[in-house]
Specification:
With 512 residues, the chain is mainly α. The chain has 23 helices and no strands.
Length: 512
């Protein structure tokens, strides 16, 4: 896979190879996604375990136990204290991501990853040994701090290390790790729920320490990215590392562009304020809108609450965990398709195809649930064909997300920003993601109770809106070097009026 590649609209060609070193580096860094994915997958399964509910949320357990067949099944898990267990983590991640911006910029990406792993490990230990509800919440907050640090630093690091021809595929290893974490969590929930002593939830929560240890060890041995080294004045070390990860000594053009970007970066003392200027309007819009829309696909509802959702629509406890495990497997497998196609077909194509697929599946699932439950939530006896239809519909929907909005929601914002505001901008991306992840997690059971099957129509509407947004406003970034990304905005019919033209030599001057 050696050889240069002319980026679309950039005119630049950097020599280099797809090296084993860069693959191992990106694969190791991607372990940061495991901690996020594991938590996404584990919380819904744990909140569907009866022993966990009996110990910490007895009112929810009693409500579920005493519900009559004629009662509204949509409302059986409607509890704000229970959803706060899931959603509190994302408020902590929001706070951590803002602080991690400064650490990432001054001390490098590795230290932020390492900090995330340590905090996540502490949270896993607190939750695994919890005896009181407050211990659960403290543990969730520590987990959130860890996720905020990892999600802020890992996508930036991978975009900076990867050769631009393969940046999409390599960066998507982060999303792949998230989906693997979700899938593993679903498997563990299924088996731990069968433990006779009723302590399976402890093992589910405590095993979060495993991916935490993986990212801690990985961060210790990872090299810093050349961009980060240059940003901290370590130019010689940066060039040596660039030669290693590109597999060639002919790196002068790329290295000089990185130096130019760094010089522009050092001239900006307050990246947060400059980020709000007109020049960065296109990128800031994408870093805000993409994670906002990503949460309104409804995917996190499936991820958080798949067992609860399946249990609500009539599946037994074990059947609901099994169904969640199946959807988690589809999520992981579909991400491989995204990795294989993102640098061939481009970001826009995957965004739009995934949006159409998700919309169709959400309408099918809404109709299936509406026809069986109506508005009173009384399904009677559920035939197997119905259960199979719902699971298949949700699986196809999950696959549509997994090769489009899932990985691209992290890839695109991490690759479009110039160096001088990259850390601050990624914090904006993570913060918006966490704000709406928290909001959706916190209100989902209430929305399900009051909107019923209309919840799926609600998300389907936003899928249409966000697909139109991508069609109109997102330029294609496939094959564009990260130091040359300004050209895609200058050539866009709408955004060109915001972005000042720059010469090729100083493409980093606000345009890295």
């Amino acid at each position: 896979m050696a050889g240069g590649y002319i980026a679309q609209g950039s005119g630049k060609e950097y020599p280099g190879k797809f090296t084993i070193r860069v693959f191992i580096i990106c694969m190791t860094a991607a372990c940061g996604g495991l901690i996020f994915g594991y938590d996404l997958g584990i919380s819904g399964g744990v909140t569907a375990m009866d022993p966990f509910l009996m110990k910490f949320f007895p009112d929810v357990y009693a409500k579920q136990l005493n519900i009559k067949p004629a009662d509204n099944q949509y409302c059986k898990f409607d509890s704000q204290t229970l959803t706060l267990f899931t959603s509190s983590l994302y408020l902590a991640a929001l706070v951590a991501s803002l602080g991690a911006s400064t650490v990432t910029r001054i001390f490098g990406r590795r230290l932020t990853m390492l900090s995330g792993g340590v905090l996540f490990l502490a949270g896993a230990a607190m939750n695994g040994f919890a005896e009181k509800v407050w211990m659960l919440y403290v543990g969730r907050m520590l987990l959130g701090f860890g996720i905020g640090c990892a999600n802020q630093s890992v996508p930036i690091y991978m975009s900076e290390v990867a050769p631009y021809k393969y940046r999409g595929a390599l960066n998507m290893m982060f999303q792949l790790a998230i989906t693997i974490g979700i899938f593993v969590a679903n498997i563990l929930n299924y088996f731990f729920a069968k433990m006779k002593n009723g302590e399976g939830w402890r093992y589910s929560l405590g095993c979060a320490g495993v991916p935490a240890i993986m990212i801690i060890i990985g961060a210790i041995f990872l090299p810093d990215s050349p961009s980060s080294l240059i940003e901290r004045g370590l130019d010689d070390k940066a060039k040596k590392e660039l030669i290693k990860i590109r597999g060639t000594s002919d790196v002068d053009d790329e290295f000089n562009d990185l130096l130019a970007a760094s010089q522009a970066s050092k001239a900006i003392k307050h990246p947060w304020s400059i980020l709000l200027t007109r020049q960065y309007r296109p990128q800031l819009t994408m870093a805000t809108a993409i994670p906002f829309f990503q949460q309104l696909t409804g995917m996190n509802v499936i991820t958080f609450y798949a067992p609860v959702l399946f249990k609500t629509i009539g599946f037994g406890a074990n059947a609901s965990l099994m169904s969640a495990m199946i959807t988690g497997g589809c999520n992981a497998l579909a991400t491989f398709a995204s990795i294989a196609t993102v640098d061939k077909f481009g970001r826009r194509t995957l965004f739009l195809e995934g949006g159409a697929q998700m919309f169709i599946c959400q309408i099918i699932v809404a109709v299936a649930i509406a026809s069986k439950f109506g508005v009173d939530g009384n399904p009677g006896e559920l035939p197997k064909w119905y259960a199979l239809l719902v699971v298949i519909g949700i699986c196809v929907y999950v696959m549509g997300f997994a090769w489009s909005w899932g990985p691209l929601g992290w890839l695109v914002p991490s690759e479009i920003f110039p160096l001088e505001v990259r850390s601050a901008a990624q914090s904006v991306n993570v913060s918006v993601n966490m704000i709406f992840t928290f909001a959706i997690a916190q209100v989902f059971t209430a929305m399900l109770c009051h909107m019923k099957f209309g919840l799926f129509i609600f998300f389907a509407f936003f899928v249409v809106v966000m697909s139109l947004f991508i069609y109109k406003f997102l330029p294609e970034t496939k094959g564009v070097p990260i130091e040359e990304m300004s050209k895609v905005w200058q050539n866009h019919s709408y955004w060109k009026k915001f972005v000042k033209p720059t010469d090729d030599h100083n493409s980093g001057g606000g345009q890295a």
